Amino acid sequence: MRIESPLVLAALADLGVERHPGASLADLTSLGIGGTTDVLRVGQHRRLPALIRLLHSEGIEHRFLGGGTNVLIADGELPWVVLQLLSPQPDVSIEGATVWVDAAADLGRTVTTCAKQNLGGMEGLIGVPGSVGGALRMNAGAYGTEIGKFVREVEVYRAARGENETLRGGELSFDYRHTSFATADIMLRARLELPARPYQEIIAGIRVCNEKRRASQPLNQKSAGCIFKNPPGGSAGRMIDGLGLKGFRMGGAMVSDRHANFFVNAGGATCGDMLGLIAEVRTRVRAAHGCELEEEVILWNA
Ligand code: EPU
Fold this sequence. Notes:
Layout: H1 6-14, E1 18-24, E2 36-42, H2 48-57, E3 62-64, E4 71-73, E5 81-85, E6 92-95, E7 98-102, H3 107-116, H4 132-138, E8 141-142, E9 145-146, E10 151-158, E11 163-168, E12 174-175, E13 178-179, E14 186-193, H5 199-216, E15 222-226, H6 236-242, E16 249-250, E17 253-255, E18 262-265, H7 271-289, E19 298-300
Parallel strand pairs: 2-5, 3-5, 4-19
Antiparallel strand pairs: 1-2, 6-7, 7-14, 8-9, 10-11, 10-14, 12-13, 15-18, 16-17, 17-18
C-alpha cells in the first residue's frame, strides 16, 4: 500500500515519522520472504497513539513489525502499511538489578549489555534473534530460560484503548510461547529484574548455549526459527525428523536438514511455498501421530 495523499504525508511529517515508500519486507525479515508496502518508522513512543489514530481515520490498515525474525509475510503489494519503532540510544539502562530496555533493542545485545553489569539469568536467550519487543510478545525461550520470568513491567500501546499504558503484576502473564498481550498491542519498553552473577560465569553460560545452538540449528540459513510450537510433552522437530522429512522441499521452501522444525528459504521461496510446506508437514504429522501442530511463526498472509 502506498500513501499518496499530500495531507496524510504532511501529517506524518508533523509527527516525525520516517516513511520508506514501497519497502521490501523480504529485506526486513529473517526468512527473506514478503511483499512491498510503505514502512513508517516512529522515533517517539508518545507519538504512536496519534499516528495510529491518523491511519485509522484515513482508513489505512497497519501491522506492527519488530525484528522480523518470527513472521511469514505474503508476497506482492500488501494491503496494509508497516509500522516500526526506532530505538532511542542508549536503549538499555541499568540501575542495580533493574534493567529498562526499549522494545526495539536487539535481544542478544541486551543480554550481553546486562552481563557486563554482572546481571545474568538470560544466558539461554543469547542466540534468539530479534528485538526485545518480539521476545516479550511471544515469551521467547530457549535452553530453559523464558524472558517472562524477568519481566516486572511493560509499557505498551494498548490497542483496545488507543493509548500507551504501563502493565504490571496480574496484568501480565507469560506462558509457553504465549502472553496476555492482545494481538494489536505494541510493546514499547520493559522493566526487568535480573539476578546478580559474576560476568565470567554469565559468559561461560552464554558460550555453552551458543555451542548447543550452533550444533543443532541452521544458523546460516534464512529461517524464522521453529515453525511449529512443541505440542505438550512432545517435540515437533523430533516428530518431523522421524518422518524422514529433513530436506523435504516445496519450491524454495525446505525443511532444514539440520533441525526439522526449522523451515528455511533455500532460495527464492515465496510465501505460498512456505505455507504449502507447513500444510503438508502438518498433514503428515497428523496422519502419523494424530497430533495437530500449531504454528509458532506469526502469519501475515491474510
Ligand atoms: N530433534 C530431533 N530431530 C530434529 C530436531 C530435534 O530428533 O531435527 C530432537 C532433539 O534431539 C531433542 C528434541 O528433539 O531430543 C528437542 O530438540 P531441541 O533441543 O532442538 O529443542 P526444540 O524443542 O526442537 C526448542 C525451541 C527452540 C529453542 C530450543 C533450545 C520451540 C518450538 N523451540 O526447540 O526455539 O531454541 O528449544 O532451547 O519451543 C524458536 O522458538 O523459534 C526456537 C528455535
